[in-house]
Amino acid sequence: MVNMGEAPYTVHQLAEHWQVTDEAVRGAIARGELTAYKVGKSWRIYPKDFEAYLKRVSTADRVQRSEQVSGNWSAHEGILTGQAAVDAWREKGARAFR
Questions:
Q1: Is residue 87 part of a domain?
Q2: Domain hosting residue 19, numbered range
Q3: Are the beta carbons of 56 and 49 closer than 8 angstroms?
């Protein structure tokens, strides 16, 4: 349930804050990466949903960078998240994730 006390962001507000285009934000919504709610013709993104998105993206980015450093993670097609990321971290060691 969404906390109605939190004012939602518009696509444009998030885009300006993160210095990306409105289309980049809409793309994350379209791909299902960022939870948003349609109000009339525009989208609204609640702070808790945006924070959850940032956590997912941040974790995925660290794992993806470690793949580039370690070089041989092709067996793990795509981006590792959740338990797969933890297992990979244990296997490769913490240094690969810095």
A1: yes
A2: 9-97
A3: no
As given in the structure block, the two tokens for residue 57 are: 């993206």
- The phi and psi torsions of 50 (rounded to 5 degrees) equal -70, -40
Cut 0.85: pTM above it? no
Tokens of 92: 């490769």
Q: How far apart are CA 33 and CA 6, in angstroms?
A: 21
Predicted pLDDT of residue 56: 84
Contact 81, 53 (CB under 8 A): no
Contact predicate 21/15, CB 8 Å: yes
CB count within 10 Å of CB 76 equals 14
Residue 72: what pLDDT?
44
Number of domains forming the structure of the chain: 1
